[in-house]
Amino acid sequence: MRRLLIFLAVLTTFGATSAWGKSNAPLAQRLEQLSQEIGAHEMRAPSRDNEDIERAGRRALSERGQLRLYGLWRVLYAYKSNQLQQPFDAWAKQAREVAAREKDASLATLVDLETLAYRHESGGYQAFKDADWDRFLKQSGPDIRSMAGIERVRHLGQIGRWAEAARLAAELTTDLERRGRIAQPLLAELHQVHSYTLSDIGDKEGALDHMTQAAALDERDAFYVRKIERIYDIAFTAADLGELSAAERFAALHHKLTLADGDTALLTWDRYLCARIAGLREAPAKVMACLAPAADMLAKPDRRLQVRMLAQRALAAAQLGQAQAAQRDLDQLRTIPEDLATRDLPLEALVEAYIDQGQGRSAEAFRKLDAWRKADSRAASKVHARSVAEMSAALESELRAKRDESRRLAEEVRLSRSLARASVVIALLLGVLVAGAAAWAVHQRRASGRLKGAQQRAEAASTAKSAFLAVMSHELRTPLNGMLGLAQALRSGDLTDEQRDQVDLILDSGDTLLVLLNDILDLSKIEAGKLEIAPTVGDIVQTAGRLVGGYQPTAREKGVALTFRLEGEAPGPLMFDGVRVRQCLSNLVSNALKFTTHGKVEVALACYPEPDDRVRVRLRVADTGIGMNEATVAKLFRPFTQADASTTRNFGGTGLGLNITRRLVEMMRGDIKVESEEGVGSVFTIEMVVDQAEALAPQAREADGAEEEVGFAALQGRRVLVVDDHPVNRRVIRLFLEPFECDLVEAEDGQQALGALEREAVDIVLMDVNMPVMDGLEATRRLRMDPRFRRLPVIALTADVMSAQIKTCLDAGCDAHVAKPIDLRNLLSAMDRCLARGVAREAAAGLSAI
User: Fold this and answer.
1) Distance between CA atoms of residues 821 and 798, nearest Å
2) Mean of the per-residue pLDDT values for the chain?
3) What pLDDT shows up at residue 562?
């Protein structure tokens, strides 16, 4: 007892540094200050149907890891703490499903913990067993241990093991403070739960202190029901401290907020609080009035709180002389299962005494009370020593925690004084820094202005370059289209050998010019960051083999042996950009053939498995050509660079191919290396990592083969509308389609095309994109709005081969796209596919009609 008195004296002294008020302030004033801390004077509008909790839960589900775990803990704990069964069960089920789907063991353990805690609190603190505490506190991770620790503190306080509760609370406080912001909601709840323990051992002011710390931690984003719970706790503690006027004021606020929320479970707590304060006022009639709205639930209580309310009503009825009503409630209390609530024998004896007194049996009432007093005195003496020891140990733990806090505050004061002494020096240094910073800011502002101007000029130059390339692409491709188109048409006619050689020379020159143009455009797109890698499922062995096979005629003409071999096993289908792989390999093979006058060119493909279902692809191109020295190899991959001036004279080219190849390989997560010896030859090696893919559908390949065998049969005798403002382009298309006896209708712009469609029916439209009056895209959009032409095949013809332009054509309603200069086979293939699809649709429609 001496230790307890010393502790109380120290605690009173320490109260001067309390976070929520001075020790000599009136208790009512402290309660009012706590009300200000939790914002009771400016409560926000109620969140109907607990929408704020639901919103926080949905936000938590969108997170991962700790953020999701702590977020869902807040939701489950809020519903558990206020015993809102239906929403708690719904969120427990949803969290359990997420944990099972994503194999989140911590989340599954959290759901088990809070589900058991709900049953534990609502059923009289008997649900947790030793094995459960061992699982959650010793066999789980640090996050679950902290969450379970809060439940353990509450449990120990309820069963009277206050010393253990205080020691565990102190340990958890230190741990949670170290974890920072993510653990603040847990720390706030720990302060709240620990306040219940302090209230039980009589340290009501300490309880209010911890309530204040809880409010400071989480009231900024507390749930609405938690705000209501805070008001309840203040009112309950104020009543225990004898501040009944303050308790009634807070209870009235609690009642107002509870009615606004509308949840019946919260109304149960509200009625219990009202009855408790009325009981302390010794106003049994008021107790009965408080409990009247809860009459239905008290007819068959299934929660611990309802059992307490039934006991309140039994005592109030007995005090009012309502013997029969009091006896009914007393009999019902005695039938309550022990696992729901422990019997309150003193209260039962007091109710019996009031009943006897009300029925005129005062002597019997006195005898029963005296007999109970003697029995209770003997039982109380057995537990008194343990209770005193528990309370003393608990208070010592609280004192130790406050000493630690006091030391921290003293250290903060010492540091503040040191900083104050250094303030003059700091002020002088700041003055120097401010002056220097001002000069530096002026300098930086000027430098920033110059940099911004340079950046704007660079962006303007880049924009001008892109615009120039786009225009030049169109302007160069238009005459190329006419030249190559007419040459292709000439080659298909009856020519002498000399004439055929001359036409082939025209085509080769045009193709070379087209390659140069494409290289310049590719380089521009790469530098602008507009070229994208688009992996698709494909057979890389077949892709490389076909490309090498396409160069065999060139190799035979030069007398060079061109071979392709697969080293090791075929890798199966892979995810890669076939267009860009062919472009890179084509650059290397064409270079090897260009610089090799005799000997051989070997292309080798090898594939090696990598972790995570990936494959390392190695393409090796070796030649016995002229080779290079070290100086040439060092500058080989620069743009517009070749070995020397004689290289350009003897072999031609712009020197862009290898630079583009290197950039494309790097964009495909790869690397390119070269080994070369002058006069011996060169070896270029591409290595890149690609993903494995599922096998290609066999029917797709069969369809492609079937298309090759058709021989463009779908084109025969078709009526074709050709829309192009350039007469040479229309003439080229007419020459291309003459062998198929197609009937051509010509138009010079989109407006004329729409008029032609109104006058006569056609089977397919070849639509140029860039035209005066109305361009091809607008004409296609208007055409598609007319139900008559929704299924009419439209093929876009454009010299702009940028991917954005191709997508624009398809979005406008075109069925396909053919680039200019128009390749004969590309055009015929695209027309054949579109017309064949139309025939298939008509056949399907006919079958469905039958």
Assistant:
1) 9
2) 78
3) 93
Going by C-alpha positions, the residue among 118, 151, 154, 123 that lies closest to residue 135 is 151
- Cβ density class 421-457: b for 16+ within 10 Å, e for less: eeeeeeeeeeeeeeeeeeeeeeeeeeeeeeeeeeeee
- Higher pLDDT pick, 490 / 288: 288
> How many CA atoms within 13 Å lie on the side-chain side of 245?
4
* Phi and psi at residue 746, to the nearest 5°: -110, 145
State yes or no: pLDDT of 707 exceeds 60: no
- In three-state secondary structure terms, 63 is coil
Of 410, 393, 413, which Cα lies nearest the Cα of 170?
Answer: 393
Cα–Cα dist 430/771, whole Å: 68
List all residues 6 or more positions away from 329 whose beta carbon is below 8 Å from its beta carbon.
310, 311, 313, 314, 317, 351
Q: Which residues pair with 61 in a beta bridge?
A: none
Beta bridge partners of residue 567, listed in sequence order: 606
Residue 157: how many CB atoms within 10 A of its CB?
Answer: 26
Question: pLDDT at residue 620 above 90?
Answer: yes
Strands 614-623 and 536-538, sheet pairing: unpaired
Q: Residue 816: CB partners within 8 Å, gap ≥ 6?
A: 793, 795, 796, 830, 833, 834
| Torsion (CA) 173, 179, 181, 182 in degrees, nearest 10 | -100
Q: Pick from 209-223, 445-459, 663-677 the range whose average pLDDT is largest.
A: 663-677
> Contact, 189 vs 77, CB < 8 A?
yes
- The average pLDDT across 532-548 equals 86
